[in-house]
Amino acid sequence: MEVVVVERPREGVALVRINRPEARNALNGEVRQGLAGAFTDLARDPEVRAIVLTGNEEAFAAGADIKAMAEAGAVEMMLREAHRLWAPIAACPKPVIAAVNGYALGGGCELAMHADIIIAGEGAQFGQPEIRVGIMPGAGGTQRLTRAVGKFKAMMMLLTGKPISAREADAMGLVSSVVPDGEVLETALTLAETIAGMPPLAARQIKEVVLAGADAPLEAALMLERKAFQLLFDSEDQKEGMRAFIEKRRPAYQGR
Ligand code: HXC
């Protein structure tokens, strides 16, 4: 059984599914290799315009595999270079939607936060419980979470390790929307299909500028936006989009 399954359920949409149900989709080396490989391939594939990342009904992912690191030392953890396996997900130029049912804990919550949009089921739980096993988040949990929800909500989650419900996550801005558990994947796929119908160069520039701009001073970030905005006027899709509007027809985007 593959621990990471890649499917093409809709035109322009790839579905990446973590498939290690016996361990609540805990992220062991094999899962991380699988995710890194999948995102590397999908980034290059011109047929793919949006990616949905999901787990199963019980767990999106219950974190890094505790059994695989319980006896490890600091040097061993360093030599594992796990951050290299997160990089293809973080650097994915295409829109990524996390479809979250069940547990999104520790590395699982961090994985969800690598996405651009998070659709959560009503029963989903988000948390950074690392402190309860003597460690701390190591894949962006102290940084992406704080940027998403602010210091005081983040500190509460990080210092207590207590999970929060999907509704709480929604209220604090950690998810994009909450839907009934049974509708999470369908909602995410429909959204991905909508985004896959958008001009891919514009989607790519929006993602790049939002992410890069968040860590830059406002003036520099606004300049990034301006340059990207201007660049799109050299794309065929900009001409197509605007002409289609004026001619009152549906645009057909080519990604050029
Ligand atoms: C390894 C895990 C696991 C994990 C669950 N399992 N989470 N194995 N690592 N993170 C395994 C259990 O050992 C058990 O295996 C099986 O999955 C089912 O789990 P149960 O606990 O029996 O299920 P349940 O009662 O439904 O509870 C689910 C749970 C709980 C609430 C998700 O399993 C849990 O608290 N898991 C740990 C969550 C956590 O602390 N995550 C942070 C990890 S540190 P057996 O063999 O007994 O059937 C981390 C650091 C990130 O993420 C650093 C950067 C990557």
From TrEMBL:
Entry-linked Gene3D superfamilies? 2-enoyl-CoA Hydratase, Chain A, domain 1, Lyase 2-enoyl-coa Hydratase, Chain A, domain 2
What keywords tag this UniProt record? Lyase
Instruction: Check the record and name the SUPFAM superfamilies matching this protein.
Output: ClpP/crotonase
On whether Lyase is a keyword of this UniProt record, the answer is yes
Keyword hit for Lyase: yes
**Residues spanning the signal sequence:** none
Single GO biological process annotation from the record: fatty acid beta-oxidation
Q: Which domain of life is it from?
A: Bacteria
List the PROSITE patterns.
ENOYL_COA_HYDRATASE (PS00166)
One MF annotation (Gene Ontology) recorded for this entry: hydro-lyase activity
InterPro entries with a match to the protein in the record: ClpP/crotonase-like_dom_sf (IPR029045), Enoyl-CoA_hyd/isom_CS (IPR018376), Enoyl-CoA_hydra/iso (IPR001753), Enoyl-CoA_hydra_C (IPR014748)
User: Which PANTHER family does UniProt cross-reference here?
Assistant: ENOYL-COA HYDRATASE, MITOCHONDRIAL (PTHR11941:SF54), ENOYL-COA HYDRATASE-RELATED (PTHR11941)
- Describe the family membership recorded for this protein in Swiss-Prot or TrEMBL: Belongs to the enoyl-CoA hydratase/isomerase family.
Q: What is this protein called?
A: Enoyl-CoA hydratase
